[in-house]
Design a protein that fits this description.
Blueprint (H helix, E strand, L loop, with lengths): L1 E5 L5 E7 L6 E8 L5 E4 L8 E6 L7 E14 L5 E13 L1
Parallel strand pairs: 1-7
Antiparallel strand pairs: 2-5, 3-4, 3-6, 6-7
Length: 95
């Protein structure tokens, strides 16, 4: 299972979220806990853009959070109409 490491007890985090330059769409990336709680949602990410600094909507206690999801929603470059998307299951390791 894929995983992501976040710092416990703080909202400011360092990640490696990106939209590959060859994509012809915007991304919005959302991170959810296993119970469906949204803890992060990006703005539109342009092709070739990378996000490394984010702020969570809530802090996480130290521990491993299983069955979380990272959603990629895609939108057209012209009028931001919704396209397809994907969901990746992952563990969040909060240290």
């Amino acid at each position: 299972m894929n995983g992501i490491y976040l710092k416990a007890n703080q909202t400011k985090q360092t990640v490696d979220f990106f939209n590959p330059a060859e994509n012809q769409c915007y991304f919005i990336i959302s991170l959810y806990l296993s119970d469906g709680t949204l803890i992060y949602k990006s703005d539109y990410i342009e092709p070739g853009e990378k996000i490394t600094d984010i702020e969570l909507l809530q802090t996480l206690k130290k521990g491993v959070y299983k069955n979380c999801t990272l959603n990629y929603d895609c939108f057209t470059l012209t009028n931001k109409s919704r396209l397809n998307g994907s969901t990746v299951k992952l563990e969040i390791n909060s240290q």
